[in-house]
């Protein structure tokens, strides 16, 4: 019973922290501010997560786990190409649901680039991202078998190129102000849809 209560408390703080950072951003996250928001003591947060950095990493893991769960629970399509289409549409869905998802990812990536998070803290984070990739890997394998995707390309090279491109686009649209006059000429979600269509066109087996 005690362990169940601790787990419930841990999940409550973590899930509430996700809501908080999606509103305030990672830069706006302080243990004191979060404690006030949740009406709990700062010591309670430190007891469960140790440091602000460790809490931030757990938030990152949880956000990717949420993405994994959505993808894992997606309804199976008629062929693997359509499954891959559903997979990449997650970029659009996350942007429409709350573009701050990408602001948080951008802030997290900036923390990584500044090496403010030690590698040993990122093992679970990296493992969760790889879980997402394995869903794609299985779809692509099935796509080669059913003939719905091209078999003459490197799936890994495609995956990382496509996801980095779409992630970069979504982060830019979510975080940057208008820089030049044409920045707001095309609606944001249309740009994301177009990017997804470009990615999918590259791998579709047109000969089938």
Give a description of the structure.
The chain is mainly α and 208 residues long. The chain has 2 domains: 1-50, Arc Repressor Mutant, subunit A (Orthogonal Bundle), CATH 1.10.10; 52-203, Tetracycline Repressor, domain 2. The protein is built from 9 helices and no strands. It has helices spanning 2-24, 31-38, 42-49, 52-72, 80-97, 100-113, 123-146, 155-175, 188-203. Helix 4 packs parallel to helix 7, helix 5 packs antiparallel against helix 9 and helix 6 (100-113) packs across helix 8 (155-175). The model has no long low-confidence stretch (mean pLDDT 91).
What is the compact description of this entry?
Helix content is 74%, strand content 0%.
Tell me what the CATH architecture of the largest domain is: Orthogonal Bundle
CATH superfamily of the largest domain: Tetracycline Repressor, domain 2
Which stretches of 5+ consecutive residues score pLDDT under 50? none
- Tell me the distance between the termini: 57 Å
In the CATH scheme, the class of the largest domain would be Mainly Alpha
Strand content: under 5%
What kind of sheet is the major sheet?
none
What is the overall silhouette?
Answer: globular
Our Rg estimate from Cα atoms comes to: 19 Å
Kindly report the CATH topology of the largest domain.
Answer: Tetracycline Repressor, domain 2
Q: Compute the number of helices.
A: 9
For this entry, what is the oligomeric state of its chains?
Answer: single chain
Which class best fits the helix and strand makeup? mainly alpha
Number of domains: 2
Beta strands, count: 0
